[in-house]
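Input (structure):
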C-alpha cells in the first residue's frame, strides 16, 4: 500500500493491485488554503474511488467532482455528499451511513462513527485491504467512536488533529484529542491531518511528542510525499 499526502484531509491511497482512492478531496484554490496542492486534477490519470466523509468545502469541492466525472470515479460518501455528487453528474455514487459496509474492488469499506456538529451525516471510514486504514474525517472524540473502532486491528490511522470551536465546544479533534484516540485504539502508525488551513495549522510534530513512549509510530507526511506501508 502507498499513501500520498495532498493536503488537509486529502490523501491518495494506492493498493498493491493498483486500485486508487482519494479521501476528502479539497483541490481548488480557496482563501482558507495557504498551500498549493502537489497534483494537477485535470491531468490525474486515475482515481477509482473517492471517499468523502461529509459535505464541507475543505473536504469536497467542485474541482474534485469534475475530476470524478472525467475519470469515471466511484464516489462514496455521506448522504449529503453523495447527493451533491449526483447533482453534479457523477454517474457511480454510493451513499453510506454509519454502520454500513461495502465490498469493493480489492478492499472492504466500513462507514464508522463520527460526530460533527455542523454535519449530522458525517462518517469515518475503515479501509480493509492488505493493511487496515482508519480515516477519521472530522469527528469529536467520543466513547462511541472508540467503541466502534475497537472492532478493528488498525495498521494506519489518518487522524484529524486540528479543529474549530463551535458554541464553546470543539467541532472535531485537536492534537490532544488525536493523541488520546491513538492511545486508545492503538494503531501501528498514526498520521496527523487537517492541519493545513489558514487558521488551523498546528505543528504536526506535536502528535509525535504526545505519543512518545507508546507503541504508536507517528509519521508526518509532507505535501506531495508518498510512502510505502
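Output (sequence):
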Amino acid at each position: 500500500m502507498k499513501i500520498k499526502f495532498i493536503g488537509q484531509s486529502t490523501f491518495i491511497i494506492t493498493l498493491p493491485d493498483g486500485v486508487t482512492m482519494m479521501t476528502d478531496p479539497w483541490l481548488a484554490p480557496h482563501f482558507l488554503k495557504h498551500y498549493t496542492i502537489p497534483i494537477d486534477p485535470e491531468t490525474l490519470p486515475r482515481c477509482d474511488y473517492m471517499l468523502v466523509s461529509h459535505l464541507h468545502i475543505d473536504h469536497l469541492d467542485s474541482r474534485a467532482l469534475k475530476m470524478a466525472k472525467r475519470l469515471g470515479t466511484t464516489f462514496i460518501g455521506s448522504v449529503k455528499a453523495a447527493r451533491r455528487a449526483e447533482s453534479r453528474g457523477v454517474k457511480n455514487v454510493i451513499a453510506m451511513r454509519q454502520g454500513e459496509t461495502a465490498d469493493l474492488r480489492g478492499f472492504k469499506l466500513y462507514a464508522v462513527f463520527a460526530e460533527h456538529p455542523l454535519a449530522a451525516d458525517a462518517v469515518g471510514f475503515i479501509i480493509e485491504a492488505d493493511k487496515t486504514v482508519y480515516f477519521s474525517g472530522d469527528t469529536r472524540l467520543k466513547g462511541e467512536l472508540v467503541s466502534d473502532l475497537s472492532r478493528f486491528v488498525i495498521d494506519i490511522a489518518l487522524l484529524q488533529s486540528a479543529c474549530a470551536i463551535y458554541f464553546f465546544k470543539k467541532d472535531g479533534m485537536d492534537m490532544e484529542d488525536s493523541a488520546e484516540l491513538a492511545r486508545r485504539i492503538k494503531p501501528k502508525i498514526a498520521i496527523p491531518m487537517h492541519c493545513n488551513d489558514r487558521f488551523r495549522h498546528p505543528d504536526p510534530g506535536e502528535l509525535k511528542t504526545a505519543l512518545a513512549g507508546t507503541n504508536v509510530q507517528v509519521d508526518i507526511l509532507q505535501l506531495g510525499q508518498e510512502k510505502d506501508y
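Notes: Helices lie at 62-71, 79-87, 143-149, 175-185, 205-210. The two ends are 5 Å apart (CA to CA).
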